[in-house]
Design a protein that fits this description.
globular, FAD/NAD-bd_sf, six-stranded mixed β-sheet, about 400 residues, alpha/beta, about 25% strand, FAD/NAD(P)-binding domain, seven-stranded mixed β-sheet, FAD_aromatic-hydroxylase, FAD binding, 18 strands
Length: about 400
């Protein structure tokens, strides 16, 4: 089958890989002029790790990723107030855990399919019409293409979802926080392999030392601190971050000075996508387009890879019956995704508790994770993956 995939982030190229593996002809459609490298560091484990293994990416994952030693929480004077050893979690997951920049993960997946799938960069979909035999996709730059199936993999702001299922406002659930990230070179101090975070009620700023003298900065803050800048307008985003963190203390003055010189700044709401169904006729959704868990959960990349793997496998198993494949894909994953979304809603406030008491409680809980038996229990209950991935036959 000829299958259009809108979105060349994580899920889209993963789906293209497996569709090609099963003999289909995937075409990726990506609005950006080139592969996107922005974003933040994601923790990668579980089902997504298994899919990456089956794609032969394990060595690349660990070469590009980081084995974080410690999560350290500090006060405005850089005194430790909480945190835990990440090694306890790594051991609990048998070493199948790596922290990796999202852009690096996207790049290694795309490299695995760039010569096996057509990619239309600087292109987007303006209209979708479908009938009993296929889908016609109108392209923003002119013309149209016809495919057997259309898959929306364009993330939380999916254009395919807007066109086929309805506007984002019908499905988005705001968790009340905003997230921003950027990189800078030559920042000091550096704490190698340490995720270091300073939190005030309702606000958090963190840094992580990366290779090539780069430092990644992450901001999380409650939505009531700002009216919400246009994420496409870097100057608005910078102004909002100055407003929220300008008098926050710690290293914030220097971090904001580095922000002023940054050309790429990631910004978005921490929100979920909740839908009654993930397919409509010959159109289906994967990843955040179908069921975003939340930026703060750190599971979106791995879950998108799992969804892509299962959808491709079910399409292969169904031998052309897309309705049967879409139904099996959704029935297999929906209970798991809904459970992850419930956990993410409860977990969101742990990043930037809105009260002093909440902050004190979060810091205490983080210190308790240094107790080996407690850490093992947390790994078993929260990190051990419950997604069974069948071995599909090509």
């Amino acid at each position: 089958m000829q299958i259009a995939i809108v979105g060349a982030g994580i899920g889209g190229p993963t789906l293209a890989y497996w569709l090609s593996h099963y003999g289909h002809q995937p075409t990726l459609i990506e609005k950006a002029p080139r592969l996107r490298t922005d974003g933040y560091v994601v923790d990668f484990w579980g089902g997504g790790y298994t899919v990456a293994e089956r794609m032969g990416l394990t060595a690349d994952l660990h070469a590009a990723g980081y084995a974080i030693r410690e999560v350290r929480l500090v006060d405005r004077h850089s005194r430790r107030v909480g945190g835990f050893s990440a090694e306890l979690f790594r051991r609990g997951l048998d070493g199948r855990f790596v922290s990796i920049p999202r852009g690096d993960l996207a790049a290694m997946i795309y490299r695995s399919i760039e010569h096996r799938a057509e990619t239309l960069f600087s292109e987007s979909v303006s209209a979708v019409t479908q009938d009993d035999s296929g889908v016609r996709v109108a392209l923003e730059r002119g013309g149209s293409r016809r495919f057997d199936l259309l898959i929306g993999a364009g993330g939380i702001h999916s254009p395919v979802r807007d066109l086929v299922f309805g506007p984002e406002s019908e499905f988005a659930r705001d968790l009340g926080y905003r997230v921003a990230a950027f990189e800078a070179e030559g920042y000091r101090p550096r704490d190698e392999l340490v995720y270091l975070a300073y939190t005030m009620p309702g606000r958090m700023v963190a840094r992580f030392a990366m290779r090539d003298e780069k430092t990644l900065f992450l901001f999380v803050f409650a939505g009531e601190y700002t009216g919400g800048p246009d994420p496409r307008d870097v100057s608005q985003v910078k102004e909002a971050l100055h407003h929220v963190f300008g008098h926050a203390g710690w290293e914030c003055p220097e971090i904001l000075r580095r922000l002023d010189g940054a050309s790429d700044v990631y910004f978005d709401r921490a929100s979920q996508i909740v839908m009654d169904h993930w397919s409509n006729g010959r159109v289906a959704l994967i990843g955040d387009a179908a069921a975003a868990v939340s930026l703060l959960a750190g599971e979106g990349a791995g879950l998108a890879m799992v969804q892509a793997y299962l959808l491709a496998g079910e399409l292969n198993r169904a031998d052309g019956d897309h309705q049967d494949a879409f139904g099996r894909y959704e029935r297999r994953l929906r209970p798991i995704v809904e459970a992850r979304q419930r956990s993410a809603r409860e977990f969101a406030a742990m990043f930037a508790p809105k009260t002093a008491l909440g902050l004190w409680t979060r810091n205490l809980a983080s210190r308790l994770l240094n107790v080996p038996r407690l850490a093992q229990w947390v790994v078993r209950s929260e990190f051990r993956d419950d997604i069974a991935l069948p071995e599909y036959v090509a």
